[in-house]
Amino acid sequence: MAIRVRVRTRAVSTGSSVEVVALANSGYETRAPEVAIPRALAERLGLRSQEATRDFYMTAGGPVEVMRLPETIEIAVLTGDREEGPVLADAIVMEVKRSALDVVFDRALAAAS
User: Are strands 53-59 and 103-105 parallel, antiparallel or unpaired?
Assistant: First the structure.
């Protein structure tokens, strides 16, 4: 079952941060912490695509091209009375047609926070 949690995303290079609702426990697994974010959020945080490498991810709908920005984003989980984290992660920037505030993080990141 997917779980939505409130998180603070912060770009390491710019210090810009945005609080968003993120999807956790989605079955998305990686070796190192990753956060999949839409391009609009990456732009809002000031993440620069010219520093990214291109990669392809397999999804239920087929392969999707993404931009990987290694160790560029910190994620902290926010609850009513405290903050867990932050955890340093790779930003995986995706072209999505969902809300600019949709964020999905992998199990490794969920376990670390």
Answer: unpaired
Report the distance separating Cα 66 and Cα 92, nearest Å: 6
Residue with tokens 């600019």: 100
In the predicted structure, residue 97 carries a pLDDT above the cut 70: no
> Do 85 and 13 contact (CB within 8 A), yes or no?
no
For 97, residues 6+ apart whose C-beta sits below 8 A from its C-beta are none
Q: How far apart are CA 42 and CA 88, in angstroms?
A: 15
Cα radius of gyration rounded to whole Å, the chain: 13
pTM: 0.78
What's the half-sphere exposure (Cβ side, CA atoms, 13 Å) at 52?
A: 23
